[in-house]
Amino acid sequence: MTTLSAFKTFTSGLKEQEQLMPVLFIGHGSPMNGIEDTEFSRRWTQMAREIPTPQAVLVVSAHWFTRGTQITAMDFPRTIHDFGGFPKELFAVQYPAPGNPALAEETASLIQSAKVELDHDWGLDHGTWTVVRHMYPDAKIPVLQLSIDYTKGPQYHYDLGKELYALRKKGVLIIGSGNMVHNLRMVAWDRLNDTGFGFDWALHMNDRFKELISAGDHHSLIKYESLGREALLAIPTPEHYLPLLYTLGVKGSKDDISFFNDKAVAGSLTMTSVKMG
């Protein structure tokens, strides 16, 4: 892997657009959403029709936790099937979107708070391809992933998100892919198909997160551990929550906020997603 100097300047050739690209946080839920026609996957498809067509997509996925920050920089990232116990049809899916090494270099050069390694080994994990293949099924738009440094706290990830703002001016769609409420240990497995079913604590915390996002209270969202016991139940481990902080970091002061796929599943998960801009 290659580490970029913060003093080098790279250009992907992407020019500034007249319209600022929106930012999305998407609750991706089960990998089966990648192949099933669900209310969630249909909304992802619809969202792609509602927003400008991006020049590229950059995803911060809950499923790429690394020591240090990395970005995929290969010409053609592989499709990663990083799960088990699902039907063979899911493992057969390939999403052959191209990468964009020059954009990876430019993105890394924007980030001054960390040394960013150019990765040629990872690819697109299910936090990315299960969503993006519904949005852009032709797989012609370049897709990159930015990893989450597991050695750093929430403030670091929020601040790093701020450094990505210039990409929005160049038509790059930034997506955080995770889940606001994600507690697999408490899943009601017997109610997996009961869309809209959530435990009281999960529904309350999901509403609280939405209130804070709408109010622009990013400080409380960064300090989520101080929001009480229900927040700790909603976020027993941080990987599915941190992508939200990246998207909040890259949000502009004039961006409108709207929510979609705002439902709980299996008691302890929420698919609630956010569009900013």
Automatic annotation (TrEMBL):
Gene3D superfamilies: LigB-like. InterPro entries: Extradiol_dOase_DODA, Xdiol_dOase_suB. The keyword Metal-binding applies. Residues 37-253 form the Extradiol ring-cleavage dioxygenase class III enzyme subunit B domain. GO terms for molecular function: dioxygenase activity. CDD domains: 45_DOPA_Dioxygenase. It comes from the Bacteria. It holds the Pfam family LigB. Keywords: Dioxygenase, Metal-binding, Oxidoreductase, Zinc. SUPFAM superfamilies: LigB-like. Its cofactor is Zn(2+). Belongs to the DODA-type extradiol aromatic ring-opening dioxygenase family. This is 4,5-DOPA dioxygenase extradiol. It comes from Flavihumibacter stibioxidans.
